[in-house]
């Protein structure tokens, strides 16, 4: 379950991404193009400590890019290379925002969703102390099966930042598709998604055991 607060962020997520995206080798678009949100989905952190959100964004006439993010209330140990920036959240205070491909909490959540045939977290909006269900047009689904074995992930060994971005751990290897143009079709269990304007399932990520 993901709880969404009615809050102001300074800078906004899109402002952070507008400054960060042009420096990525997999980014395709003009450096000064406005970054626009296309869709988003979230996963649960079982410990309830880390926010996990994947944003799908476009810039100018470029393709839709997939950007998984994690939000933390303190810096990620050893995560300097993956820090996108910090934001001031009007409810939660200062938050550290990371490229989630370098965050073991996201990597474990993604592998689990794919291998067990799971989906995105249910979203609830906090309104006057109450939690109200929040409808989202974005639906993601793993190709695995409920109850499947999910290997434990104790560390990320390396991340190869390309399209797709490869995340190698001690037990699984993941491939996170960055440019959602339908060009990346890989073997292995997959996460696919649909959203407004994309009614046919689009491959988003893959996982294979090592």
Automatic annotation (TrEMBL):
<keyword id="KW-0547">Nucleotide-binding</keyword>
<keyword id="KW-0808">Transferase</keyword>
<dbReference type="Pfam" id="PF18085">
    <property type="entry name" value="Mak_N_cap"/>
</dbReference>
<keyword id="KW-0418">Kinase</keyword>
<dbReference type="GO" id="GO:0005524">
    <property type="term" value="F:ATP binding"/>
</dbReference>
<feature type="domain" description="Maltokinase N-terminal cap">
    <location>
        <begin position="20"/>
        <end position="103"/>
    </location>
</feature>
<dbReference type="GO" id="GO:0016301">
    <property type="term" value="F:kinase activity"/>
</dbReference>
<keyword id="KW-0067">ATP-binding</keyword>
<dbReference type="InterPro" id="IPR040999">
    <property type="entry name" value="Mak_N_cap"/>
</dbReference>
<protein>
    <recommendedName>
        <fullName>Maltokinase N-terminal cap domain-containing protein</fullName>
    </recommendedName>
</protein>
